[in-house]
Amino acid sequence: MNLGLSEEQAAVQELARDFVAREIAPHVVAWDRAEQVDRSIVRKLGEVGFLGLTIDEEYGGSGGDHLAYCLVTEELGRGDSSVRGIVSVSLGLVTKTIQSWGTEEQKREWLPRLTAGEALGCFGLTEPGTGSDAGNLTTRAVRDGDDYVINGTKMFITNGTWADVAIVFARSTDAPGHKGVSAFLVPTDTPGLTRNTIHGKLGLRGQATAELVLEDVRVPASALLGPEGKGFTVAMSTLAKGRMSVAAGCVGIAQAALDCALEYAGQREQFGKTIAHHQLVQELLADIALDVDAARLLVWRVADLIDRGLPFTVEASKAKLFASEAAVRCANNALQVFGGYGFIDEYPAGKLLRDARVMTLYEGTSQIQKLLIGRDLTGVSAF
Ligand code: FAD
Questions:
Q1: What pLDDT, in 10s, does the model give residues 209-233?
Q2: What pLDDT score was predicted for residue 107?
Q3: Of 53, 79, 127, 153, most Cβ neighbours within 10 A?
Q4: Per the database record, which ranges form the Acyl-CoA dehydrogenase/oxidase C-terminal domain (predicted)?
Q5: Is the Cβ–Cβ distance between 70 and 255 less than 8 Å?
Q6: Is 2 contained in some domain?
């Protein structure tokens, strides 16, 4: 097994590091305090090619492999999880889903703009009443002549305020459970669609997260993404790869925690020597370093499986579960290394912890990942 990077992968990793240093790092604290990253970052992400990494070249992407995608996601997560999330959702949950499930017309309409960062995508699955139990969603799409009319509310939608197109999951047939769910491509300027930005988030404060309210939103039948009634399959196949991306972002948080804790431990002096000399501080650093390595290896395994066309869904759940819990541990340990200064937002550890916390919640909570892994182990569904 070769755990090294190819020349192309190393080059894309370097590109991402350079991008973060130039375009993200100088603004991280200000964006977090302002509760908004500068929107021009979307265009810049498109120009550097990060919004089309795994998309075919004929649609404006660079046709890169999934390990390259993970490397970029890790670096963005190391820089700012809010920016990382913009890419994970627009590329991973929207652009990639249109490439996998869309008609040629849908691909030609959206992919070049999405990969260029001229348009942004969001993914509308969660509702106020259905989160983990997404298959029971209640948003309704009713066929009316050549159109569908959609009514419902979507909650916690990343990129929601800014997005130009939303993948909206709605119940379009009377089949019970998730069998009646379909996916629709809904331009966000469609009459009847309103967005309410969600403020006061614990972390990912720079990210535009919104509630989407759909009132008699009329879309043509050609807006159907994938076959009617197969929307839940569309959602689950998308989220399996999405979990790899979240996990890679968590490795970035964990690595950033190690970077800042190490640097601080080498500078801060207590009891006449730098705190790096104290054994219990070294224990904190060693625990972080171990989590970083273990999480990264799990993520790379998923990318490798995908790139070799092998089954990866359960491995993606394991990587997401471990990496998200590890990111919380690492950020918390880093904060401890900083002592009281860790509690102040001029120092990075607190933001890492706030940003890490949501990773155990979205794209399937830690409990849901455990149920997916448990089902695979036992053959018994405990949902
Ligand atoms: P619930 O499902 O109500 O869960 C509450 C608790 O019960 C959790 O601890 C959960 O693990 C537990 N639980 C539930 N069912 C079980 C069970 N069967 N067994 C054991 N425990 C269980 N959604 C989107 O569609 N698109 C987005 O872009 C998006 N972005 C998000 C961004 C942010 C910042 C946040 C906070 C959320 C986002 N979400 C998004 C929603 C996210 O995916 C949901 O919050 C998540 O799936 C959990 O759903 P819930 O919040 O309704 O919690």
A1: 999 999 999 999 999 999 999 999 9
A2: 98
A3: 53
A4: 229-377
A5: no
A6: no
Nearest CA to ligand 1 atom 48: 131
Domain range enclosing 177:
123-229
CATH number of the domain at 338, please.
Answer: 1.20.140.10
**The 3-state secondary structure of 312-367, one letter per residue:** CHHHHHHHHHHHHHHHHHHHHHHHHHHHHHHHCCCCCHHHHHHHHHHHHCCCCCHH
- Which residue is closest in CA terms to ligand 1's atom 42? 362
Q: How far is the CA of 361 from the centre of ligand 1 (A)?
A: 6
pLDDT tens per residue, range 337-377: 999 999 999 999 999 999 999 999 999 999 999 999 999 99
The catalytic site residues sit at 363
Task: Calculate how far, in angstroms, residue 17's C-alpha sits from the geometric centre of ligand 1.
Answer: 31
Is 148 in the same domain as 210? yes
Q: Hey, is 311 helix, strand or coil?
A: coil
Most distant pair of Cα atoms in the chain: their distance = 79
204 lines ligand 1 (CB under 6 A): yes
Query: Does the Cβ of 237 fall within 6 Å of ligand 1?
Result: no
Both 109 and 201 in one domain: the answer is no
237 and 371 both lie in a single domain: yes
